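worker-03 picked up job from queue 'complexes'. Input manifest follows; three sequence lines, order preserved.
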Amino acid sequence: MNKNLELADRGFGYILVAPTFIIILAVILFPITFAIVSSFFDYTLINKSFNNFIGIENYINSLKNERLINSILVTFFFVILVVFFEFILGFFIALLLNSINKFKTVYYFILLLPLLINPIVVGLIWRMFLHPQLGILNFLLSLFGIGEVNWLGDPHMAFTTIIFVDIWHQVSFMIILLLAGLSAIPKEPYEAAKTDGANIIDCFLHITLPYMRPVIVITVLIRLIFAIKTYDLIYIMTKGGPGDSTDLISYYIYRSAFISLNLGEAAAMSSILLLIIIIITIPLFRYMDRLD
Amino acid sequence: MKKIVVENLSKKYQKNIEAVKKINFAIDEQDFFVLLGPSGCGKSTTLRLIGGLETASNGKIYLDNKDITNLDPKDRDLAIVFQNYALYPHMNVKKNLSFSLRLKKFSKNYINSKIDEVSKLLKIEDILERKPSELSGGQRQRVALGRALVRNPKAFLLDEPLSNLDARLRALMRTELIQIQKRLKATFIYVTHDQVEAMTMASKICIMNKGHILQIGSPDTIYNKPNCVFVANFLANPINNILKSDITVKENGIILKIFNKRINRNHLNFKLNHNQIFFSIRPEHIYLEERSDTLLIESKIEVVENLGHENILCVKFNSTNDSLYLRTDTTYKYKSGENINIYIDLKKMLYFDSKTEKILGE
Amino acid sequence: MKIVKSLLLISLISIFSFSAKAVTLNAIMENVPDTLFIQELLPDFKAKTGIDVEFEIMGYGEMHPKMIPSLTASTGSIDFMPVDFYWVGEFALAGWMIPLDDYIEKDSFDTSVYFDSMMELVGKVEGTTYMLPFYNYAMGLTYRKDLVADATHQAGFKSKYGMDLKEPTSWDEYMNQVSYFTGNGTKYGVVNQGSKADPVAMEWSNYLYANGGRFHDENWHGELTSDAAKNALADYIHNLNNHGPTGAAAFGFDEAFNVAAQGQAYSYITYNWFMPSYEDASQSGVVGKMALAPVPNNGSLNGAWGWAIPTSSPNADAAWEFIKWVESPEIVAKRALMGGAPTRSDAFNNPEVLAKYPHYGALKNILATAKNFPVFTYTPQFVEIMGTELSKAIIGEKSIDDALASMNSELEALAKKDGLYK
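worker-03 finished. Artifact:
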């Protein structure tokens, strides 16, 4: 009698989950599988057929492609720098915000605004600001006697500029999540520490950081994955240039799919990217598990 | 020399909430000084002011004759034991205990010997490697205490440390705390709302209500000679009987009109400009047989509360509608609705001005 | 209640089936003045045919990827489409366009009015007509005619270079003028659109042709390592770095146009359809001061869009009606009057148009002499590669010779892939 009830319960559970599961299957699983499968064929938008099985030829071509390698390197440095600075700056601001009471909501709202802006719009606005002759940034600098800065036309400067714009856009993501983590820390250990003789740095190292560890790991992980996928900023601001100094990998793969129309090769590159992301994030997930 | 002196201390929060209103008291060396009062009376705030976790709006605090009013908590050499222990959750017990010493860069030898000493005293030697989440409530409380002991501070501040424990543990810990305080010859300032804790542990009780101090004295004094209705009611187990009465003042005495009877108390001598008073009698001073100077009241039993070791009877009078509580042993099984004669010990009655609620006499 | 419901249902169905007869045509269009001019004229089309037309307007870069899904489906959501000359080879190979010969014959549409270069670029592919030319974006030299007419400058220029100051007809003349006017009369002698891919590739092609070079020979063997090509790239880098504004290496045509329109540059080699924008006081500070000329030495790069009907079009016949209307002499004249860049020669002979847009004289010359960019299946990809290599040469990451060598070998590789290399 009990067994039947349990089975009926389970069955009902499956029925309830089914719609979501089907959607996940259709929207996520199917496209990914299709992409991975097509990476083993000579599949182009001009000739959309699965007639030409070429095994791992697409993968080999991708890995030999020095432009792809360049792209991976540029993306690597971009992601590390961007996540690092956003984390440091975001944490610092979150700590400040956590310690004030007046006007907290006002500051919070102002800091949140950049994140709410569509990345395409962010790119366009900053392109205007950064126009070497007509943009406001160089105008303000000129008031201090600083000459025209070539924000997007010089390869090193361009790389620095997109990092800067990305930080401007995304740092509030860190602020929000880290602030949430900070506000969940109980006050008492700090009071005990104060009586025990701890100063601000001691409190930070021995209380704040240990409490924040899980939040920090998750936040950095999420931001890392999204940073690898940065596309809009490059598309609007630099088109991967000058040269290929800002050719981030998402933009590179996009071009090979839609300009070269070689979907098979683009799918192979995307699979390689997926693999890299998985390799990076598995240790982080394991670390999170250990924390519990 | 007084160990700790508090002078005209007040604390005001925003929106004009004054938690502590110009209080004054002094604590002696080796005192077990208990701040007692209901929720919101200002006792925790006072403790936190002494400890430095709050800044005083006004007034001064002296420790060993030194003005510590504006010092940071870490410079006051006082240790605090918190209500929910506030242990460092990411360190094991050993690290929790040694944290303050490590910050002050004491030698490893010194730190280890201190930890040895304290963990033996509190019997926590076996749990040194555990983390706070792996400890029971009682164990955590000991570690919190241990953390304070390790520092050898000038005085210990304890903020309701036993309120999160179950009844049995509380009783055991009470005894232990008393023993530790005596053994270490330490000065304890202890905050609680539980009058049993106050009565059993304190050398001096300081009762507070609404930010003011009502009375400071030994447990005996406070219990037997309360200076107002509030104090009399607060230190009562299970409850203090308090009733209103009209009086007539005569040349050499007072006539009380209680329980529809007129009683002469010739030794009483209050100055009053009206003729209403409160009088109180504790349950243990109501007997079931006549004794010298007692008043017989006929009453009916309303409720019988069986506590296991004694009964509490709530009786109502046949003539008025007043009720009284009294205590009896368990030899006889009382039943609700029974008639009973009770004898009130007039020597033990306390009288209070019904308007000011201050004590008039006994 | 039930009766009311079924009556409602029936009436709704009948309304929808009736409205199904009224066709709405959908198209993806580029965000340029010519599109906006047509949009203003759409009510005329509706009045004549009862057909609605909906434009989805976007930037150039987004069009190609957005159109592809419709083109590759069996029935797409696009009824007609503008086709950039880059894509002609690709679209033809993939079979995404319906041949228009039958329609043209049936309605006796006169295609002889189109400039030859236009029909070659965006009309016929290997003999079959797939498109009707829509508008041209041939590139020309826009320059400050007020500075050229100035007597002081005429004297100064003559004494420095020994030649007269006039509209440049030789490449050396132009290079001298760029040099002369930098910091003299205006801030920069030239503004370049050096941004990767499209902008720099298009602009540099003018320099290539003006220096007498070309992309490939008849058998598609690359000629980008010729001396002409090397001079062209050296000239371009020289201009951009020494006579142009900082940051030009990242300028798209909007940024570059703004510098010229603010009066900070003497010249800007760009699309001819920018001319009306120079005359628009709300955008320009040089109203009446800019003139259009062919790029010296027949260097102008041709460019154009054509109208085509996708093979997957849901309403091919109605789409043809639109194309017929929008390219009718009457509508083309109206578009030209608004400032459009026509592809039909009769528009250039219209006295009203010529009176309003004096630069049409120059434009006619340009169209007659402009040279085409290599058009084949992999044009977009080649433009990408050109863009990257040119960009690297500009910033000094690659030497001129190396950059051109890479471009050349990539061109040949793609030509081989397309079966054109002989």
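worker-03 released lock.
Chain C has a mean pLDDT of 87.
The longest helix of chain C spans residues 2-21.
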